[in-house]
Amino acid sequence: MKTKRGFSTELAYVLGIVFLAIGTAFMERADFGVSMVVAPAYLLHLHFSQTYSFFTFGMAEYVLQAFVLIFLCLVMRKAKISYLFSFITAVFYGLTLDLCMALVSDFWMAGLAGRLVNYILGIILCSLGVSLLFHTYIAPEAYELFVKEISFGYGFKIDRVKTVYDICSCLVGVVLSFIFFGFGHFEGVKAGTIICALINGWIIGRISALLEHCFDFKDSFSLRPLFDR
Question: What is the pTM of this model?
């Protein structure tokens, strides 16, 4: 029987945020459409940054996630301290995303082939990031926390809940694109967004299964009770 290697849940949290931010940056540069999860925030950024130049992609992320957390409280009919930590994670992710956006611009691959590489790499990194965040007790971003809470709270399979959430987020992105940029022009939500919405949940499920097959996720610090409240 193969012995699993230990993997720190705290490290899974940090790496999950970093991989997610880098993956999102690659997808944005590919210009085939960003991930359906971040599409609404990206469209808010594109629209409001025209008037307020300081309104970055990362800032749009944690502003929108604040509203997602409020909606989660309404759906679950309760509030937890972990939801507050989730907003802190959103700010951490937003700052990391802005940094990754600047870094990825220096490694831009031009041409259709380069864009495809960026897009595929972006999807894989985002899926890996989400999978890692599902294996930590530290509150993930509001998007992942919403999926995790609904899945565990109502007994649904997490990959199916993720797929439904992604499709709903994609539809919101389409509506915002119409509102901000008109019916004749799409921004943020493109063919790559639709493809990602259909396959992202499946990819995350497969990566999660692989991670659980290879690693035994264990806490390195005694902080779990703080995030279970």
Answer: 0.84
